Amino acid sequence: MADAGNRPKTLNFNVGVLGHVDSGKTSLARALSSTASTAAFDKNPQSKERGITLDLGFSAFTVPFPEHLSKTCGDRNYDSLQFTLVDCPGHASLIRTIIGGAQIIDLMMLVVDVVKGMQTQTAECLLIGQLTCSHMVVILNKIDLLPSDKRQGAMDKMTKRMHKTLENTRFKGCPVIAVAAKPGGPEAPDTEEAQGISELIELLKSQAFLPQRDPSGTLLMAVDHCFSIRGQGTVITGTILQGSVNVNDTVEIPALKVTRKVKSIQMFRKPVPSAMQGDRVGVCVTQFDPKLLERGVVCTPGSLRTLYAAVISVQKIEYYRGVVSSRAKFHITVGHETVMARISFFHRVPPENQTGDCSPSSQKQCSDFFSFDWEFHHLDEYLMCPGDGERQEVQQWALLEFERPVTCPPLCLVIGSRLDSDIHGNTCRLAFHGKLLEGFEDKNYTETALPRLKISKYKQKEGAVERVMDDYTVIGRNLFKKETNLQLFVGLKVTLSTGETGTIEGGFGQSGKIKIRMPEGLKEETKQLLSSSSKKKGKGGTKNEPSKSEETKPNSQPVTIHLNFKRYVYDPHKKMVQS
User: Fold this and answer.
1) Are 301 and 252 in contact (CB under 8 A)?
2) Mean pLDDT over residues 408-417, rounded?
3) Which of 49, 137, 531, 542 is surrounded by the most beta carbons within 10 Å?
4) Which residue has the higher pLDDT, 296 or 482?
């Protein structure tokens, strides 16, 4: 076990660079950086040709440790602050990569083209930022494209517009700064000096804070790149999301179900004996083919679960315009994977002694809790509750059934999106988000786990009394089809439109009719109503033909039978239940 005192006295601070495609994120990261890591600056050849980021790029720069942070460090004496820049792609079809990057950042830089302003993907990046990060700086890039005589006015106008956009978000009042990361554009010679970068570095220093870093607990590392070094082994690079790793530790690559021993660890080309939560590292292992792992996670052996389905808390993203329906399929980003899944919504049935309070304040307290002991009601779609002047959300959960198993940590963020929507369309493709609360590891979860989920659907059936057998027995019709298994309904209570209650005793004949026992007997007026309607049937006409008088007397209403029950969606016995 390496001594923590041997660690380099550098605090690592992860800054995500997000924004619309072509807003100049990579140029900005390049202008800021002094040390490029292995995954940095678009190793993808297609990306180099087009000048856009297709993968998570990483790079870093180091500054003297800011004075305002020294006061909050206690006995941890750092001498420098390393900003690790996570350059997330802005290309619309690669939103899943952005989500993967956003989960490992402390502060977000939202890069906006000062000429074009907010665009669809800028808004999506802002939404992802709200779900994954609590601090943000807005960068108005490409100010060199503005005419010099109108530049300041245009920058002020865009700054004001950005503040208005952020007014109702968690980033209200965040700093906005203007730069030109690559004057003249990507093709311009490097002799053109970037504008506003020194000011941006000072702003980032002032915005930096001491992130929560905890070396305890199991290791979870988000992997973004994997490559081999001849004679050394395979280097897995990424960011440690939780726990710590030491030389000689055994780690697991859960997606491949293999374990390997850590031979050495590097942080930006400097060998270190250990690394902890928040650090960006390269971990060298032996006898592992790098082609098997490009992106994913590495963890303490046995600490992660591979799930076939999961229960999540769920909240719709307000900018998503579509209906979010049960049984629909969405792209689900969970942990560092994106996979298709079918979704089914449900909400909690309030206990007998509580009112069904629909207000968000009453619901938020239980949003991240879930129990198999609770009773739930199936929802056909995500439910909005009528509120004071506007529709409000009621707390609800969802069952996700994955098309292929996913490996992820407990209680991780889940984002549902429609990545198959038109990437050029001016619509938000992020539909909902939530937290993973319960996972099902058994491939046969539909038989072993889902029956524990008490999700019911309410059913109503209506039929009519055909005739009276005696004062305590009637025959009912039109309640069931001929092929219905009536045994499932024996013993259920029914109510007549005249007020009496009875119990289904069983079938009558072969055509789906039923015999109903009325324990309190029929009321006199009900018997009269039924006898008069049967007399009318007897007048004129043949056995199977309605009589003339029946046709001409529309006021002779039949006595209807009402059957209300619920069925648990995942009950293998399909039992009917009445409260």
Assistant:
1) yes
2) 86
3) 137
4) 482
Number of residues that make up the chain: 579
Enclosing H/E stretch for 45: helix 45-50
Contact between residue 570 and residue 447 where contact means Cβ atoms under 8 Å apart: no
Q: Which residue has the higher pLDDT, 123 or 390?
A: 123
**Cα four-point dihedral sign 283, 27, 176, 103:** negative
Residue 509 burial (CB count, 10 A): 11
- Neighbour-count burial of 446, counting CB atoms closer than 10 A to its CB (0-12 exposed, 13-18 middle, 19+ buried): middle
Which whole-number Å values give the CA distances from 119 to 19, 266, 372, 451, in the listed order?
9, 38, 43, 45
Q: In what order do the strands lie in the sheet with 136-141?
A: 35-36, 57-64, 80-87, 10-19, 107-113, 136-141, 176-178
How far apart (Å, rounded) are the C-alpha atoms in residues 491 and 334? 46
Per the listing, tokens 């002779």 go with 556
* Helix, strand, coil tally for the chain in percent (to 5): 20, 40, 45
> To which residue do tokens 């350059």 refer?
87
Backbone angles phi, psi at 506, to 5 degrees: 155, -175
At residue 386, what are phi and psi to the nearest 5 degrees? -60, 130
- pLDDT band, residue 38 (cuts 50/70/90): very low
Specify which residues 275 forms β-bridges with. Answer: 245
Residues 6 or more apart whose Cβ sits within 8 Å of residue 211 = 13, 14, 106, 278
Dist CA 247 CA 7 (whole Å): 13
Torsion of CA 448, 454, 458, 464, to 10 degrees: 70
Residue 383 has pLDDT above 60, yes or no: yes
| Three-state DSSP string of 104-153 | CCCEEEEEEECCCCCCHHHHHHHHHHHHHCCCEEEEEECHHHCCCCCHHH
